[in-house]
């Protein structure tokens, strides 16, 4: 087919592309050299180099010009294909590594950053070495069994060469190991670890293991151009190997001491967390057996490696010392609360261990509160509920004590504490209220509304001590002393009114009109909340002084210099009048206004005699309100009357509507009422449609007495109603007499 199709270039291209899926699935293995060559050239011409690489690794390339294919692969960065051609075409496993090393080694040795392409080459090199040492072909398949030992030896010998083939005079020893360590220490060591796993029983491999470990130590320990993480990776790798039960490696223990010195005694403070993490991984991998523990703890404390200290103390069950590790570690200090809670609550720790942790937490309680007051409060409530007073005594700093008590007592802080189980004495709550008065007086009322178990008398004394008058008024109202609370609120309002009436345009400080309005609204709310429970005289004792207080400052508006806020004060006074109208009779309010204004002969007039016009606005406003409410009442009454009329009409229509029986026979005796011959018998029809003879219904005792009148009940409906409700016909019963006709 190919010979005929190759005469037409289009047909030839289509044919070659049709071969691709069969080659990739290994269904087409025997292809002539000419077709293989044309296939590669065709995809190369179409710039489909990835397809070329995929095809090459599935072909038998022994019949191709290998040097030409290798050159093409290298120029087009087809590294997988290049390695495949070397391995399968020439049984050559070292040359591909040399080519890749020549590219990535110079920039790594110079300390430069690798390009993306160089990183890809380095990663492929690591995978290739791993495959060779494991007896697998790269990128797919397996190395022939007879070649596996040879390939392993060649690769090991290559890696541990003292110098490269074209070494310059300044090249350092073991260039290949050094390059791979610089490229990716962790992954190179992982490759070696996997290799060590595969060759446990291979004597030659065991020798190579020891040799390569010695080279690794020589390269990394005797050079200062490796980071702490890289050195740590090596010793973590060694610790894991040494910890294995069938270990045959030997590592000088003094090297571990050198690494400990290197990690714990750096020349500068850089990479602190990195050094600590490296040492922790080393210890967790089994390296702990390589160190003298007391020396390790001393060096870790000196280096401020608190996670290392925690690791060591946990091995010794010295849990109380771990609390110090958390508190000294700025990165993990907030985790101390969870740690203490877990030790004290999770089973598995002895009573002595729990007691030591409990005592340590008590000793550091001030530090814990300053760190996170809400977490400390939750901890105290859970595990130290019987020692709250002791904790309070330990907190000498008043701000700290305030934060702690607020977290403990204020349910809005969001911590999960069962207040009932705490059984906090009232004196502690009152101590918190006093601190609240000092540090956050604006939130005292809001907090009192959610607090529990405080004594009113003692709390009132505290708020009076700090002159928090609104809070005192709130507590007096709660106590039941409404008049006392009102007098305090009235005094606050009067002082603000007095200050605002003496302001001029240039006054910048002092209360604003908004402050006056707020004080007035709070006072009105106090009066409204409690007026329902007072008699008329007590109501007047609240509302009239408030009205007089609002009208008092307005006398200044008649002086030569009018008050800046005269109109606003009149509006506020109307607000008071509208509010009190619900509780005080209108004539009483008018009489009081006239007395206050002096028009009615009262003493100490606000507006002076003969100046009734000054309060004309107030009176007209009240009359407008009265007219509006009267109109509203009349309209509402009219609407209610219309509704009532409509309901009565419907009821009357339903009562007078004729009833249509469902059947023409009695529902009890089942005889037609027309054929019954008793002249005196009555027919009873219910609104439900059932029909009975009065004699039959009476025999079933379906009558009830209501207000001296006998009322019938439907037998069927009442007997089927399991709830016992009777289906009555009320006034809808129709009675008729049977005539002989």
Automatic annotation (TrEMBL):
Composition bias, Polar residues: 720-730
GO process terms (BP): endosomal vesicle fusion; protein targeting to vacuole
Species lineage: Eukaryota, Metazoa, Chordata, Craniata, Vertebrata
Region feature (Disordered): 720-741
GO cellular component terms attached to this protein's record: CORVET complex; early endosome; HOPS complex; late endosome
GO molecular function, one term: zinc ion binding
Record's protein name: Vacuolar protein sorting-associated protein 8
Organism: Galemys pyrenaicus
Keyword list, A-Z: Metal-binding, Zinc, Zinc-finger
Top-rank taxon: Eukaryota
RING-type domain residues: 666-718
